[in-house]
Amino acid sequence: MAVARYIKDEKDQILDVILESGIHVKSSYSPKDLDAMGFSYEKDVADPGEYPYTRGIHALGYRSRAWTTRQYTGFGTPQETNERFKLMISHGQTGLNVAFDLPTQMGYDSDDSMSEGEVGRVGMAVDTLRDFEIAFKDIRLDKIGSGLTINAVASIMLAMYQAVAEKYGYDPKVISATPQNDILKEMVGRGAWIFPVEPAVKLIGDTIEYSMNVLPRTNPVSVCGYHIRESGATPAQEIACAILIANAYIDNVLARGHDVDAFVGRFSFNLNVFGNMWEQVAKFRAARKLWARNLKEKYNVKKPQNLFLRGLFGGGGYGLTKAQPENNIMRGAYYALVAALSGAQTTALCSYDEAYTIPTPHSALLSLRTLQLLMDEMGLRDTVDPLAGSYFIETLTKEMEQKIEEEMDKINKFGGIIEGVAKGYIQRLVARQAFEVEKGLESGELKKVGVNIYKEGESMEVELHEYNWESAEKQIESLHAVKRERSEKDVTRTLKELEAATRDGKNVMPYLVACCKAYASVGEMTGIFREIFGEFNEPSLF
Amino acid sequence: MELVDKVLRGDEGSAARLISMIEEGRDEGYEAISLLFPYTGKAHVIGVTGAPGAGKSTIVDKLAISFGRQGGKVGIIAVDPTSAKGSGAFLGDRLRMRNAEKLEGVFIRSMAHRGFPGGIAKATLGAAYVLEGLGKDVILIESVGSGQTEIQISMICDSVVTVLTPDYGDEIQLMKAGLLEIGDIVVMNKTDRPGAVEAAKDIEFYLMSHKKQHWQIPVLTVEAIQGKGVEDLIAALKLHRTYTVENSQGSSKKKENIKRLVLAIFKEEFWGETLKKIQDKAMFDDIFQQLQNSTIDPYKAVRMVMDLALPTE
Amino acid sequence: MENKKNMKVLIAKPGLDGHDRGAKVVAQALKEAGMEVVYSGLHRTIDQIVNIAVQEDVNVIGLSIMTGAHIPITQKLFQKIKEKGIGDKIVFVGGVIPSRDVPKLKELGVVGVFPGGTPLAETIQFLQSISKKG
In whole angstroms, how far apart are CA A16 and each of A482, A488, A513? Predict the structure, then answer.
């Protein structure tokens, strides 16, 4: 089941509701439903801040601290990005979320032939430390955390973040970066992969291992069910994949002989909010519970705070439409409500114009305001997990928990998440479901306001920023200037050391930091990995 | 014919076009094949068959690279199934051959089997001729890979590699007899899996005790993704090649095979042509109407259609 | 089994962008509509795409471009198509395409433009009408 279904009679009365994850919704719920499921408040839910954390990871929830807002920023040149950072901070944004252009995401320098026409297009171009020096100038890196939307070369970007912080006089121990650093989801959904599964996961293990001692406030991995959902997964599959992917990273670090409690507390999640709102709330509640149980029972995690599912619940990109785009403002508000009702620690919304353009400062601000007014006007900070105890929500949460476990079993039967991604089992599953959804929209079985119902009204014209060849040129010039000024001797030496460490299977992080400090380029460092690791073999669709 | 000259001069676009003509069953395509035919027969045509997911494409990819490195000019024909409902097909093997694709001079052509039985398309043989005309001396053909015994692939290939994995325990038992019929070399892929070595030994023992010809089918263990065992496979293929050329049993098998293939294609063509001729006749519909009304039985209906198609004079 | 022309389509993802939900949905829809579909996979250069189009002798090349780089990419494609002498291929483009760019794309030689949100039926109908003409 991948498409939500409403079974109706000829008078439009709803006879049955089947959610995307395959759960049937009844016309009403009562204590009997909870009894039938063997519901126990202590075991299934418990108070906020108590295991299994269904109701949230903190006893006081938003009373102690409202959520962190982290709208996606970063485009064009590092200079423009720096200006946008400062603007969003002045508007009250409490965290940064950096977007990188495609060449950077794929480990190519701005002057590479593969980068032509893409430099600075969908995010900030980063070639060397010089670019980070400009982008993070005058930003208090000890006070504000940065999400880095980067995966295949997240190790390099994290190293560069440390290098820039040190350059500006910060102790690495006080800085807080959250690189996305989830390569398995790239292979399923977003496509910004470079290396084969095994070395790609090893690099993630390196960042986790390294952060333990050197970057203790950094969240080295942010597991993204988000993009798997965007690619066509159901909410239950989104969580199933996220937990299994997180486990794959845990296993990699455990195999190096570390204690799970020493690192797993820094894991975070990035989960999606679009879809049926009850299903989403139940999903987040069930996810917290399953993650805690997974860590406790499978990995024997001891410290309670390490059992917390922390994360960014937000986005909702696939839910937005190009048709009647102002509707996306309302959708965004409801998505934000879902995130707040689900106890998100960090959130961000896709801007209403994202379906047809790169968000303007105005639309990004609207999203931020949407998030702020929920907390400050609507009373979402008043009490923790306000939907708890609803016969419906508690039943649905338990059903969702079962569905997620079923999906995990399915993937495990296939051979596990790594095998499933390497062979394309997950990719085929979500691609097929995405097609089902599309057919549902065309047949009218699925309803989307402005798309296949209530279509009257204007559709917005897609507006794209004119590609700025000039600033691309400038970026390339700046790279060449750095290359002229840097010490070739240092670059060659640090790159050689990186190569040797990579071949020897050592943790590459200290070597990457040294390369970054010597102004080696992203392309040069990635080139070494490409040479040694090779490339991911994209599985076929069918 | 200009197209044929262009193919012989190595023009990829013309070769590709000609293959399409054969797929479409166009007369000029067949005429071109007649002209190309004298130039063929020297390439080593290798079939790779096996169940879905056995790793056929990966093996073809690795073989192409190894042959290429040794100076071979490689052509690849990858056959995918046409959907059971309708004429659509997803030609996905190519995506798993990205390493071979990057090699200069490797020509890859995907084709849908369009309902032809036996793991290949009707145009696959023609495509092999075209690729040889284009100058390829090693032609790798990846079969549909239905998991069934794909007889037809052995009719157009000099050597057939059957790829198995330890994942298919029970199926392997069923496939043993088929191996004797179509396989010249058996590859046990994914030898990192538990039970692989045992499965390979089991098959080896079976093949030894059921030896029917001078060629003893070797069972090789390969880990295709890592490239392990590929060189051994190439050596075995070359050995088999020598056997088919030098051993009278080997060459007579090939002659017998080509006769079987002609009959197979004849059957398909004859069926297609016959159906075209009779399906618009009023009587044709009438027969099925009677069948639906249960006024005649299915065997009677068949005899009536036969009379319609081949009226006794 | 009958002899006939069947539409063969290459769905290609040029460039570095990896968002392939749309491309894969279209690929599945075309298959279901009875066409033979080759999918290029991600991160392809124009040279590679044209090479595939030549060897596969497809009738149609569909490009999926989400980054906004559709004009330079399409320009490059037609340049390469000309070089290789396969001007008979029908080219359509999908993805994030502003309508003001449609005339420019058509000028370059693109026959159909199907921005995200175009009903699948429309794309299929377009290709089928072309195959009848061809």
Answer: 64, 69, 57
Is the Cβ–Cβ distance between A236 and A287 less than 8 Å?
A: no
Instruction: List CB contacts (< 8 A) between B88 and chain C.
Output: 30-37
> Could you read off the pLDDT of C41-60 as tens digits, one per residue?
999 999 999 999 999 999 99
Q: What is the tally of structural domains in chain B?
A: 3
* Nearest Cβ partner for A121 among C21, C68, C100: C68
Shared-domain flag, residues B18 and B72: no
The CATH number assigned to the domain holding A282 equals 3.20.20.240
CB–CB of C24 and A465 under 8 A?
no
Confidence of residue A301 (pLDDT cuts 50, 70, 90): very high
Domain identity same for B169 and B119? yes
Lowest mean pLDDT among B175-179, B228-232, B253-257, B268-272: B175-179
Q: For B92, which of A423, A537, A541 is closest by C-beta distance?
A: A541
Nearest CA in chain A to C45: A114
User: Distance between CA B50 and CA B142 in Å, rounded?
Assistant: 9
* CB-based contact A17:A11 (threshold 8 Å): no
Q: Do A121 and C73 touch (CB under 8 A)?
A: no
Residue A98 lies in a domain: yes
- Which of B12, B82, B87 is the closest to C54 by Cβ? B12
B178 and B107 part of one domain: yes
C8-133, superfamily in CATH? Cobalamin-binding domain (3.40.50.280)
CA distance A542 to chain B (A): 6
Contact flag B108-C55 (C-beta cutoff 8 Å): yes
Chain B contacts of C8, Cβ < 8 Å? 20
Domain boundary, last residue among B230, B250, B270: B250
Q: Do residues B177 and B287 both lie within one domain? A: no
A530 in contact with B, Cβ within 8 Å: no
Is residue B256 very low, low, confident or very high in pLDDT (cuts 50, 70, 90)?
confident
Range of the domain at B157: 40-250
In a domain, A232, yes or no: yes
Q: Is residue B83 part of a domain?
A: yes
Does some domain include residue B257? Answer: no
Task: Using the 3D structure, point to which of B213, B230, B250 is the last residue of a domain.
Answer: B250
Task: Chain B: list its partners (3+ Cβ pairs within 8 Å).
Answer: A, C
B117 class by beta-carbon count within 10 Å (0-12 exposed, 13-18 middle, 19+ buried): middle
Average pLDDT, chain A: 94
Domain range enclosing A23: 5-443
A356 close contact with C: CB closer than 8 A: yes
Domain count for chain A, please give it: 1
Same domain (yes/no): B246, B269: no
Q: What is the ipTM of this complex?
A: 0.94
Q: Are B202 and B195 in contact (CB under 8 A)?
A: no
What local confidence, expressed as pLDDT, does residue C56 receive? 98
CB contact set of C11 (below 8 Å; sequence gap of 6+): C23, C26, C27, C30, C37, C38, C39, C40, C62, C64
C-alpha distance from C12 to closest chain B C-alpha (Å): 11
Query: For residue range A438-465, what is the model confidence (pLDDT) as tens digits?
Result: 999 999 889 999 989 998 877 667 677 7
Whole-angstrom Cα distance, residue C21 to residue C25?
6
Give domain limits for chain C. Answer: 8-133
pLDDT in tens, A521-538: 999 999 999 999 999 989
Check the CA dihedral A37-A42-A46-A47 and report its sign.
positive
Q: How many helices (H) and strands (E) does chain A have?
A: 20, 12
Q: Which residues of B touch C5 (CB under 8 A)?
A: 24
Chain B interface, best mutation among A435, A540, A541, by max B CB count within 10 A: A540
In a domain, B51, yes or no: yes
| B95 with C41: Cβ contact below 8 A | yes
Inter-chain CB proximity C67 and A102 less than 8 Å:
yes
Average pLDDT over every residue of A250-264: 98
Going by C-beta distance under 8 Å and a sequence separation of 6 or more, which residues neighbour residue A516?
Answer: A128, A129, A156, A159, A160, A162, A163, A525
The reply to whether residue C117 touches residue A117, judged by beta carbons under 8 angstroms, is no
The answer to the question of residue B256 being in a domain is: no
Q: Is the peptide bond before A31 cis (omega within 30 degrees of 0)?
A: no
